Amino acid sequence: MIQWSVNYSVKNEQLDQEHQTLFAALDKFYEGLKSGEGKQSLVQLMHELIDYAKGHFSNEEAFMKRIEFPGLASHSIEHQSFVKQVNDFLMRYEAGEIPASYEITHFIMDWITRHIKREDMQYAKWYLQRAGRM
Ligand SMILES: [Fe+2]
Ligand SMILES: [Fe+2]
User: Fold this and answer.
1) Closest-lying ligand to the alpha carbon of 21?
2) Residue 40 needs a FRET pair 20 to 30 A away by CA distance; which of 1, 62, 74, 91 works?
3) CA end-to-end distance (rounded Å), the chain
4) How many angstroms does the Cα of residue 44 sit away from the middle of ligand 2?
5) Residue 57 lies in a domain
C-alpha cells in the first residue's frame, strides 16, 4: 500500500528503519481489512500499530533532544495528536460505534507520509546543517 523509498529518508538508519516498520504495520492492518479479518484481529493489528508508533515517537523525540532540535515541542504535539486520534478511532471501533473502514487506513497513511515529509525532514535538515557546522 505504501512503499518506503529514499524520498522518505531522514538520514538516520534507525529512524528510517522504524518508519519502514510503521509502513509495514499499516500494511498489515490494511491487508487484514481487505481480507475480511474479524474484529478481534483488526483491533490487535491496530494496537500493534499504535504501540509501535508510540515507541518510534519516543525514540525520535530522544534523537531530537540529543541534537538540540529547536522544533521539538511542536513536533511532539503532532505525535500526541496522532496517537490521540488513532486511539479515539480504536476505542469507538471496539465499542461498536464505527466500522473499521478504509477511511482510517487512509487517514493514517496520509498522516504518516505527510508527517515524515514535512515534520521529520525538519530535524533531518537541522541535523545535517549542524553536522556541517561542527
Ligand atoms: Fe515525527
Ligand atoms: Fe517519524
Assistant:
1) 2
2) 1
3) 40
4) 22
5) yes
User: What is the extent of the structural domain holding 24?
Assistant: 12-133
pLDDT tens digits for the chain (134 residues)? 788 999 999 999 999 999 999 999 999 999 999 999 999 999 999 999 999 999 999 999 999 999 999 999 999 999 999 999 999 999 999 999 998 888 899 999 999 999 999 999 999 999 999 888 65
Which cell goes with 129?
A: 546543517
Q: Is 58 part of a structural domain of the chain?
A: yes
